[in-house]
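Kindly inspect what follows.
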Amino acid sequence: MAPRWFEIETGLEHDHPTEGDNDVVIPVVLKLGLARRWQFELQGGGEQPPGGRLGLGDMSLALKWRLSDRLGPLGRFAVQGALKLPTGSESAGRGTGTTDGSLLLISSNSIGPAELDVNLGYTRRGGDGSTAPKEAWLWTVASGFPLKGVIGGTVEIYGLPATSGPAGAPNLVAGLGGLTWQVHPWLVLDAGTIIAIEGPQAFALFAGMTWNVGRL
């Protein structure tokens, strides 16, 4: 993102587990270009856990550094560090009650009219591991591509390898598919679904918006 350009991403995700109550997530991501290769992100939003009430979830601050636009097979390569703060209520199920540090490696390539993104992330959490695993990994492989006119498609496979400790979880792999609609050059809407491939991923429906507000 160019310096001083501001972007907002938000939406709604409704999870439908096979057992228990549904939950709702309202993510909000604010992005600001700081310099030619630097971008700041504020990530937060609302969450309604199963059987609970809607309220503020955990919030994180992230800094993204694009190291290169042509780094061999890695293509456009960036590194993003983030600090998650325990702003959500742990007792209400809207937060982990931990302060987390994470590192995300981001590789993007253009293949004809399509984009291919491959990410690898690591998170180290505070606390004693009773409410959330002290360590966790994440990988994603995603592609966005044009379909017809202003309509595009997006597909993604992501995974959360098994974690250990009192709050450990089994391996999870899920798939995402959706459509995008470029309403204006500065406004894109999207909607789709998430399905489980392996592990405890709830079936989910989502809709979102990316708004390039402009230069501040």
Observations:
- The chain has a mean pLDDT of 95.
